[in-house]
Design goal:
The structure is a single chain. With about 425 residues, this protein is an alpha/beta fold. The chain has two domains: about 180 residues, 3-Layer(aba) Sandwich (Rossmann fold), CATH 3.40.50; about 210 residues, 3-Layer(bba) Sandwich (FAD/NAD(P)-binding domain), CATH 3.50.50.60. The chain is built from 14 helices and 20 strands. The strands form five sheets. It has a seven-stranded parallel sheet with strand order 6-15-7-8-11-9-10. The protein has a six-stranded mixed sheet with strand order 3-2-1-4-20-19, sandwiched between helices. The longest helix has 16 residues. The protein is globular. Bound molecules: flavin-adenine dinucleotide.
Length: about 425
């Protein structure tokens, strides 16, 4: 596959590991990494919690890939909005879709359209300064929030809502979100999962952080905690038992709790969102586990709340020219069609950690190499074709050097304690580029 012209759409972990694997095995391939945003690295910037800065250090490895002579970052150009897929396929020998799964999965219950109801993507993007969600500002003049889901994203959302300004000084929480969150009179957050505590997908590190919150106490119903958990999968057994120990260390739920609190509730599914225009509560059905699955008991209860964030997963939206099935791009081990591949969450769905994408991307690159043993099409000009397209359409593409200027300006704005103060408007980022360019 010597000298192929390759376009990777999406600069998140999957796109970056794909580029890294190609560079390592075929350094003379030319790679353009497109992103609809002016900022690279996908959910590492826009998803990973702002108080989890060490996780974001993975970007140093991605910087090295971007610094390769045959790799370009071409930010601020969206597939489907600025350029259609058929053009990219005409310009490059290979197009790799690495867009992640940019759409929240719906709960599928009545009332989801009400004011105050958000998907995790919207809510997380809002507090992480994603430009498309700057104005999705929820009203946080509320006393109770409900977070649906039993994974790390649900824990992130609950924790960020309850952290104090002091606890967030070393974070890069978006400024507009910080001002809403810190002035909010929020007293209670319920994190509700449909399955049992031993089925929750929390990692122990994230669950353990609830014991350290300075202004909120965590409660759970200890009567539903099993004495222990056994599994043939010893790794899983260890994680679940650590989580159960952590849950036992929290306070037991009781009536009349005063003060700021987080409630970790299990075995309940939302069945209806209540209220007229805006949410005033959620009706839940209690569940029991039957053959390892959550089944409704018919018994219902309600939680009064003014905010609901649903953290139940993501899916691919519609992109012209891409076959989407069951929320992912339809593929055969990463291959979609001749010269068209998919990696990361767009390929597998929204599960796994940043590192999971590495081996997966490497496998798809192996497959690509086998498909292109004979080389590419010399008529395809790759980067030159894309540049001509951008010039014709008046698209201001952001290069890696441009991003480094934006990055430096954000870091400078961060002051002494915060790692950065993010720009949220693309126009503000572009003005930094023009100013110093
Ligand atoms: C809220 C949240 C928190 C997380 N926290 C952690 C954590 O702490 N640790 C951990 O290991 N994992 C974490 N993960 C998981 C991790 O982020 C994912 O495994 C990983 O980001 C998936 O990589 P990806 O490249 O497939 O998708 P993404 O990271 O979503 O990257 C997709 C990229 O494609 C771009 N894009 C999308 N559509 C287009 C388009 N039409 N045109 C051009 N570009 C486009 C996007 O702007 C983005 O840059 C978290 C996930 C979420 C949702």
């Amino acid at each position: 596959m010597a000298g192929l012209k390759i376009c990777i759409v999406g600069s998140g972990p999957a796109g970056m590991y794909t580029a890294g694997a190609i560079v390592k095995k075929n350094p003379d391939c030319v790679i353009d990494i497109l992103d609809k945003l002016a900022t690279p690295y996908g959910l590492v910037r826009a998803g990973v919690a702002p108080d989890h800065q060490t996780t974001k250090a993975v970007t140093r490895a991605y910087d090295k890939v971007m610094g390769n002579a045959n790799v370009r970052f071409v930010g601020n150009i969206g597939l489907g909005t600025d350029i259609p897929l058929d053009r990219l396929r005409a310009f490059y020998d290979v197009v790799v879709i690495a867009t992640g799964t940019p759409k929240d999965r719906s709960l599928g219950i009545p009332g989801e359209e009400k004011e105050g109801v958000f998907g995790a993507q919207v809510f997380v993007y809002w507090y992480n300064a994603h430009p498309e969600f700057r104005d999705a500002v929820p009203n946080l003049d509320i006393d109770t929030a409900v977070v649906i889901g039993n994974g790390n994203v649900a824990l992130d959302v609950a924790r960020i809502l309850m952290r104090t300004e002091n606890e967030m000084v070393t974070s890069d929480l978006a400024e507009h979100a910080a001002s809403e969150i810190f002035k909010s009179p929020l007293k209670r957050v319920h994190v509700v999962g449909r399955r049992a505590p031993e089925n929750a997908q929390f990692s122990s590190k994230e669950l353990g952080e609830f014991a350290e919150l300075t202004s909120a106490t965590t409660y759970t119903d200890k009567s539903v905690l099993p004495d222990g958990f056994t599994s043939d999968d010893k790794k899983e057994e260890k994680v679940v038992n650590t989580n159960l120990d952590l849950l036992r260390s929290f306070e037991h739920i009781r009536p009349g709790i005063e003060g700021r609190s987080i409630h970790l509730d299990f075995l309940a599914s939302p069945v209806e969102i209540l209220g007229d225009n805006a949410i005033t509560g959620v009706r839940f059905e209690r569940n029991k586990i039957v053959d390892g699955k959550a089944a409704g008991t018919g018994e219902t209860y309600e939680i009064d709340c003014q905010l609901l964030v649903s953290c139940i997963g993501y899916e691919m939206g519609i992109l012209e020219g891409l076959p989407v099935e069951k929320g992912i791009v339809k593929n055969d081990e990463g291959r979609v069609a001749d010269g068209l591949y998919v990696v990361g969450w767009a390929k597998r769905g929204p599960s796994g950690t940043i590192g999971t994408n590495r081996i997966d991307s490497q496998n798809v690159v192996e497959r690509m190499m086998a498909d292109f043993e004979g080389g590419g099409d010399p008529a395809k000009k790759g980067p030159a074709d894309l540049d001509a397209w951008c010039a014709e359409k008046g698209i201001h593409a952001v290069s890696f050097d441009d991003w480094k200027r934006i990055d430096a300006a954000e870091i400078a704005r961060g002051g002494e304690k915060s790692p950065r103060r993010k720009f949220v408007r693309t126009r503000d980022m572009l003005s930094i580029v023009k100013e110093k360019g």
